[in-house]
Amino acid sequence: MRDLRKYAQQTTLRLVFGGLLVIVIVAEILIAIFYGREAALAGAFCILLGLLPLFLIWLLLWGLEWIVRRTEK
User: Fold this and answer.
1) Torsion of CA 34, 39, 42, 44, to 10 degrees
2) Which pLDDT score is estimated for 65?
3) pLDDT of amino acid 46
4) Considering only CA atoms, which of 26, 31, 55 is closest in space to residue 43?
5) pLDDT score of 1
6) How many domains does the chain divide into?
7) Stretch (H or E) spanning 62
8) Are 45 and 27 in contact (CB under 8 A)?
């Protein structure tokens, strides 16, 4: 029998990463079309800087989950 919780978690993670990837790519293409290459590079920097707190929160939660699982064993 398949682990449905793991499947749901994996699917959610893929949807979130895919959605973010599509949004970033579309945003960068639109910035490049309307404002030029230099603005698109600045936009990419700002988008990555804006996503940094989300990544750090995810990293913290992943680390806490790892610690909890390690102490349970």
Assistant:
1) 30
2) 93
3) 94
4) 31
5) 58
6) 1
7) helix 37-72
8) no
Distance between CA atoms of residues 9 and 61, nearest Å: 14
Residues 51 and 20: beta-carbon distance below 8 Å: yes
For residue 49, what pLDDT band results from cuts at 50, 70 and 90? Answer: very high
Residues 6+ apart with CB under 8 A from 20: 51
Report field, pTM of the whole predicted structure over 0.85: no
Number of other CB atoms surrounding residue 19 within 10 Å:
10
Domain that holds residue 10: 4-72
pLDDT of residue 73: 75
CA neighbours closer than 13 Å in the CB half-sphere of residue 4: 1
Query: Quick check: helix, strand or coil at residue 22?
Result: helix
